[in-house]
Amino acid sequence: MCSSDLMKSPGITVRPIITLGGEHEVNEVWLEDVIVPVENRVFEENKGWTCAKYLLAHERTGIAGVARSKRGVERVKTIARAEMDDGAPLIKNPFFKRKIAELEVDLIALEFTELRTLAGEASGKGPGPESSLLKIKGTEIQQRITELALEAVGHYGAPYFRGFGEGDNEHPIGPDYAHRAAPTYFNGRKTSIYGGSNEIQRNIIAKAVLGL
Ligand SMILES: Cc1cc2nc3c(=O)[nH]c(=O)nc-3n(C[C@H](O)[C@H](O)[C@H](O)COP(=O)(O)OP(=O)(O)OC[C@H]3O[C@@H](n4cnc5c(N)ncnc54)[C@H](O)[C@@H]3O)c2cc1C
Question: What are the backbone dihedrals phi and psi of residue 13, each rounded to the nearest 5 degrees, phi first?
């Protein structure tokens, strides 16, 4: 049975979840006595968690999102070049500049850690508990980027029209780069939860890496 047919099985209920950013991108899925044909079983019987842990290690490596964060840092710099602070571009403000520099240093460190993990994979060593480290640092960096973007746009981050850019006639207030700063910030809170919360990743590192 293909997956779209499976979703019509009796006992499956899908309910939308509206995220903090005000958008619908995820659902909650309830399973009540759902019968799954044996040919659709993934991996061996009663080995679901083993299978899930393997997939999660890969998911967490991907969540690190180095390339996406590099684009995010560039976006923050573009905003900071355009926004004025006390008569000079915000990017000249030493406090703001320092926050960007710290972000970039952490991002470079994350990139090299990720490259080590990928090199390990290339030589047949699948990602292990170090994927938890990538997940924690990657998501912290992503959240800091959204915080800096919101800080840089200042008051323009406050007005937000959900329909903007979707064909309505609302006129946005402030520069284009400000419109998504607040919803992106709110949406980004999810990154330290999904794929296993960052607290749980710390527990995994404590047990599997540090042997505590
Ligand atoms: C946007 C988004 C998309 C998602 N997508 C998917 C998906 O596609 N598929 C899927 O299956 N799931 C998905 N999830 C669910 C996600 O995996 C869980 O929300 C996440 O693993 C946390 O589990 P929980 O919500 O049950 O929190 P809980 O485990 O109930 O934790 C609640 C809080 O307690 C803390 N906590 C819990 N246990 C411990 C402990 N032992 N030590 C220290 N702190 C602890 C947690 O860190 C957290 O802060 C998604 C979640 C989000 C937000």
Answer: -125, 130
